[in-house]
């Protein structure tokens, strides 16, 4: 493995470069670019394994692995994307998005829409997966872009980075909870992960917002350019829904997902809300169920005397928008599945050894690097959090991360923070979130690399710098 590991990483880097080249330089549709690059990487991995004399092929069934990866990612997020796009289309067509944009900008002012999107993203993603949060909030992002004249790439990047920050650091999002458990933090200690995760995630959010404001204003979006002023656009609606009704399709699913996360929060030997009530709350809080309720609330916005053909057309437009996102997201899932079928993760884990050569703050940097390698290689922040924390747990004493301050497991908590920072670096073509952000913001692949991917790099590096400062002070 130590001999083939570097070659696998090189093949992975080449396949990622091929995606960017095919979609950016040669204008091939991202779906085909990802699929072709996935096959190329799979064949390269099989060749590397065969040349090294591996007993079993690194990717035993390339076609089957690609099909399984394509289907499994859509099983997890496919209906979320479909329901989210239908909600967005109804909000747009009924004028509800106009109501929401007016309300947000009354609070923050027209000069600070990116700050509003960033903070909304940070709050929403504490209980909600960032993919789902972006789908739910994207109609609001588009409407605010129209009203303020701001570049959708700026607002999209601000929203994406706000969601991403709390997603990787603050329970009850599943990744940080799993990482905390893996390093030995019990249910009673999760409050410290939350208390440390909030400031670390806010630092990462500010870093992402700064990148969006300074580095993305000149990047282009493929979203249709407004041909009329916001007031002219607003005047085309006969009757715009009130704020409460306009908020319901977005806020109710978010509250349901939040309630489901809180109800499932570990407490003692069970969860915070147990029994039948806990099961019902958790079930309603699954993203698919919560967003289906959001769809029903969105349909309630339609005028009583509506043309059935118009309703069918609006839903059809939402499905059409979702189709492109679905196939690209599925292709990204296939790419990730092929990567996971190879022993890249095992090679990356072997790089740390027994951890005895590093300790204290330096160990935090090592955990960050390991999580960053895993995240960049296989695409999932949650997987990077889980794998790295599992590996780190038996090494904590050797790494000098078993330090406590009173009843605060500070060493373990900082280990989770360092791993979370690494799990942000970087979101690119093998990450489903990359494609959700790209497609809902109208970014090309090359634009998304300059905006979203670069921003996640800045966020991760800034977060680990802050964690290292905490490590120097507390370890």
TrEMBL record:
Keyword Transmembrane in annotation: yes
The organism's place on the tree of life at top rank: Bacteria
Transmembrane segments: 6-24, 31-52, 58-83, 114-137, 149-170, 190-213, 246-264, 284-302, 323-345, 357-374, 381-401, 407-426, 457-474
Protein name (database record): GntP family permease
InterPro entries named among the record's database cross-references: Glcn_transporter
Keywords recorded for this protein, A-Z: Membrane, Transmembrane, Transmembrane helix
């Amino acid at each position: 493995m130590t001999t083939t590991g570097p070659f696998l990483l090189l093949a992975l880097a080449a396949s990622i470069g091929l995606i960017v080249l095919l979609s950016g330089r040669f204008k091939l549709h991202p779906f085909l670019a990802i699929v072709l690059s996935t096959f190329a990487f799979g064949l390269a991995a099989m060749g590397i394994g065969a040349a090294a004399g591996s007993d079993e092929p690194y990717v035993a069934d390339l076609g089957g692995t690609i099909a399984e990866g394509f289907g499994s990612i859509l099983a997890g997020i496919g209906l979320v994307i479909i329901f989210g796009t239908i909600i967005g289309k109804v909000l747009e067509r009924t004028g509800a998005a106009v109501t929401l944009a007016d309300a947000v900008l009354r609070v923050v002012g027209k000069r600070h829409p990116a700050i509003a999107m960033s903070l909304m993203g940070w709050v929403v993603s504490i209980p909600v997966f960032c993919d789902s949060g972006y789908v739910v909030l994207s109609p609001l992002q588009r409407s605010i872009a129209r009203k303020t004249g701001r570049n959708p790439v700026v607002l999209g990047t601000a929203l994406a980075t706000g969601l991403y920050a709390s997603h990787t650091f603050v329970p009850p999002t599943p990744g940080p909870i799993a990482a905390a458990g893996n390093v030995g933090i019990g249910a009673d200690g999760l409050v410290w992960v939350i208390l440390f995760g909030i400031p670390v995630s806010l630092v990462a959010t500010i870093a992402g917002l700064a990148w969006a404001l300074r580095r993305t204003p000149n990047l282009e979006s493929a979203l249709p350019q407004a041909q009329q002023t916001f007031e002219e656009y607003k005047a085309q609606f006969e009757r715009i829904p009130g704020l409460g009704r306009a908020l319901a399709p977005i806020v109710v699913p978010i509250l349901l997902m939040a309630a489901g996360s809180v109800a499932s929060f570990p407490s003692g030997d069970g969860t915070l809300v147990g029994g039948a009530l806990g099961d019902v709350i958790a079930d309603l809080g699954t993203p698919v169920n919560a967003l289906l309720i959001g769809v029903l609330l969105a349909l309630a916005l339609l005028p009583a005397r509506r043309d059935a053909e118009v309703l069918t057309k609006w839903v059809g437009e939402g499905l059409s928008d979702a189709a492109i996102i679905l196939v690209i997201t599925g292709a990204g899932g296939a790419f990730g599945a092929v990567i996971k079928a190879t022993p890249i993760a095992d090679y990356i884990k072997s790089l740390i050894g027994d951890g005895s050569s590093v300790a204290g703050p330096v160990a935090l940097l090592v955990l960050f690097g390991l999580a960053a390698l895993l995240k960049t290689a296989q695409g999932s922040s949650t997987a990077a959090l889980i794998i790295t924390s599992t590996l780190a747990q038996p090494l904590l004493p050797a790494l000098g991360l078993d330090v406590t301050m009173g009843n605060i497991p500070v060493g373990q908590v900082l280990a989770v923070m360092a791993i979370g920072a690494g799990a942000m670096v970087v979101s690119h073509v093998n990450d489903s979130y990359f494609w959700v952000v790209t497609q809902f913001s109208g970014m090309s692949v090359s634009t998304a690399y300059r905006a979203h991917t670069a921003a996640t790099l800045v966020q991760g590096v800034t977060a680990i710098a802050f964690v290292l400062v905490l490590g120097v002070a507390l370890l």
